[in-house]
Design brief:
By secondary structure, the protein is mostly helical. It has a domain at about 25-70. The chain has five helices and no strands. The chain has helices at about 10-25, 30-35, 40-50, 55, 60-70. The relative contact order is 0.12.
Length: about 80
């Protein structure tokens, strides 16, 4: 299954970098929560990822994401 293709004259790497740029503006706290999970064995990594997730359910960035989705606008994350 293909989710993305590159434009004519562009490489797959070009498209991957574009996508990475789009993803990189997402909730910085959530990204931090999963960024190091691969450094642990599976069970420990899942626990490491899960531990900071609970507070993220009530942070301002998550609420901003929900509001932005509801109003069909890009979210303005602040890392809070």
């Amino acid at each position: 299954m293909i989710d993305y293709t590159s434009e004519e004259g562009k490489t797959g790497l070009d498209r991957a970098l574009q996508l990475a740029g789009e993803i990189s503006v997402n909730d910085p706290l959530a990204k931090r929560a999963v960024s190091h999970a691969t450094e642990f064995p599976l069970g420990a990594g899942l626990n490491f990822e899960r531990a900071p997730h609970e507070p993220l359910l009530h942070n301002k960035d998550r609420l901003e994401a929900l509001e932005a989705f509801k109003t069909k606008r890009p979210p303005q994350f602040k890392g809070k």
